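Reopening closed ticket. The problem is back. First fold of the pair:
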Amino acid sequence: MYGLSKDEKLDFLLEKELIQVAIGLNQVILNFYMDISIDIGGEFNHLRNSRSLIKNKKLPRSAISLVELLGAHITDIKNSGDGTLELLFSNGDRLQIFDSEKNYESYTITLPDGTMVVV
């Protein structure tokens, strides 16, 4: 699937605990409980109290703050319909993931039975 429809059901992410953050040169992978992962290759923003924790927009440095989300679980999901996904975590932080890549995958959501690709 390409893009992320406003009608796409993402409730399967609710209450999932972040158990691992894997940081690479060109991507960051968030691994959640129950074999669910989000592989981010595009732009994202990690916010606390409406203030961005990201100081450097380039990977891998931009991913360092995501380690603070370990052990937190997703309490709310906002799907804007334009490819932007916003996750609210139990510690009060928000993670906005943008459909920012023109020629590559911006992010993918992997489940045990399939993958959603946002390009």
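Second fold of the pair, where the issue appears:
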Amino acid sequence: MGELLSLLVFFALGLVALDAFELATWEMVVFAILALTVIRMLPVALALLGAGLDRGTVAYVGWFGPRGLASLLLVLMLVIEEPDLPGIGTIFVVVVLTVLLSVFLHGATAAPLTDRLARRSTL
């Protein structure tokens, strides 16, 4: 049931993706890129400071860390609960851009980065 709901959320994302692209500004795209890199990876790295992991493993966990489904659900709840919130359209577009960018970038890098980590782990 959970998997079906997850697929429905991503289906809804696909339905609004074109509208989000039309409303996007270059600042929103820059923020989406920062959200997937510095804004997400730095807190993960800080949280793992005492874990004894090497830099490559920490970078891997930071890159593939928190995923987009939760972001989509939270922004949908916000849109439903506070539709008149100032800036709600901007928030929605930024979240959609970030999740779409995440889907493509993480999808493209999952196999090569996982293979690299697995090779390093067997040495």
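Update: turned out to be a display glitch only; the data is intact. The chain has one domain: 2-121. The CA atoms of residues 64 and 106 lie 7 Å apart. Please close again.
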